[in-house]
Amino acid sequence: MVLEAIRYQPRSLEILNQLKLPHQTAYDEVKDSKDGWHAIKDMRTRGAPAIAIVAALSLAVELQNNRVSENAEEVGAFIVEKLDYLVTSRPTAVNLADAARKLKKIVETASKSSDNNGQAVVKAYCDAAAQMLISDVSDNQGIGKYGAEWIEKQAGGGQVSVLTHCNTGSLATAGYGTALGVIRSLHANGKLKQAFCTETRPYNQGSRLTAFELVHDNIPATLITDSMASALLRLKGPSEHIAAIVVGADRVAANGDTANKIGTYQLAITAKHHGVKFLVAAPRTTIDLQTRSGEDITIEERPGKEMTFIKGPRFDGVDVDLSHSETVSIAAKGIDVWNPSFDVTPAELIDGIITEIGVVEKGKDGKFDLTMAMEAHNESVKPSTVGGL
Ligand SMILES: CSC[C@@H](O)[C@@H](O)C(=O)COP(=O)(O)O
Q1: Is 166 a pocket residue for ligand 1 (Cβ < 6 Å)?
Q2: Closest to 285 measured CA to CA, from 53, 130, 7
Q3: For site (Transition state stabilizer), what residue positions does UniProt give (predicted)?
């Protein structure tokens, strides 16, 4: 069975409720953009690409299931207003803003055509939103292929182990995943010795979601807490042949600085210290040339209770009793909490940015030039034309 975080067909959208994983596999219906906004804000759906796609499709089903004006410009204005609203759900991942910008452009063109009525604008919007779901899977397969090839080449043959952080798999995307896609490809090529995944406190995307995907796909994997990463590289690195740390991204700035799940930065520092490659895997929809550096990225802060409480089913003896889902306090009452959801890893700590058209490496000046990969974004360019391959 293939893991499906987003189930869409015209007039119907369902998301796998990630707050209930790994204990329960339950789908929530998303009827409109308001449902979509809340599903994203509450993190029932999460991960940069998935957020963008769910937002776009939530508005698609709203338009498909409700009567719209005959007037093309009125429908266009309605869609633009809803897209602006959806973008306010979570600020750090650029994929959502990027999707909204592209969809607005399509809608503006469609609504200005004198041949079009309201329904034609809706159709142009829904077709483009549905295409995002399809393109994301093929982009991820490209990321997996190029990332695995790059690691295998660097390692010079034989099996390798990799460490990853947060969840970047089928649950965070339309399917296959980015950093987890690289792990899937290494495994498919027979080159993966062991995948290590961090717990990823405080929301536990690693222990709840990545571990779930790895077990689901029978990929050899070991879970560690975030605080074990340096010890893993030092003590097990040589015996396990840990070749790289591979993470996803929520926004890659023009200079390569990368915002990703909190804890990524410290992993990059420890990778540098231990001489382990540090790679960011992201589709080009995550690269934001408008943001010059990491300093310009807005970092979302989440409620303190995500850190001070933990939610899950009660263990009665050996059996998990799913009827008793509880929220348990795990911190001293009254303590102040700082809970940034993401951090920024400076480009100097990153060895390569794996995209769907190839791995971008630094030039002789020690800097990333991402413009080439992004220029190719609107053209159909063969992978070999991108730097680093
Ligand atoms: C392919 S997902 C890439 C990133 O979005 C991922 O690494 C991450 O940081 C997710 O954060 P989350 O807060 O769970 O949405």
Answers
A1: yes
A2: 53
A3: 166
11-53 per-position pLDDT tens digit: 999 999 999 999 899 999 999 999 999 999 999 999 999 999 9
- Substitution site in 17, 207, 261 for ligand 1 pocket (most atoms within 8 Å of beta carbon): 261
Q: With CA atoms as reference, report the closest residue to 238 among 160, 147, 165, 179.
A: 160
User: Running along the chain, 389 residues long, what does each successive block of 10 average in pLDDT?
Assistant: 92 96 94 98 97 98 96 96 98 96 96 89 98 97 98 94 98 98 98 98 96 97 98 94 97 98 98 98 97 97 93 61 71 96 98 97 96 67 40
Type of residue at 162: V
Phi/psi region, residue 241 (left: phi>0; alpha: psi -120 to 50; beta: rest), is: left
Ligand 1 proximity of 136 Cβ (cutoff 6 Å): no
Q: Which domains, from first to last, does the chain contain?
A: 6-136 (1.20.120.420), 146-301+337-385 (3.40.50.10470)
> Which H or E element spans position 182?
helix 179-188
Residues in the chain: 389
- Is any atom of ligand 1 closer than 6 Å to the C-beta of 341? yes
Q: Edge-to-edge strands of the sheet including 6-9? A: 6-9, 12-16, 27-29
Q: If you search the block for the tokens 């990630």, which residue do you land on? A: 18
Task: Tell me which of 43, 46, 300, 302 to substitute to probe ligand 1's pocket, judged by most ligand atoms within 8 Å of the beta carbon.
Answer: 46
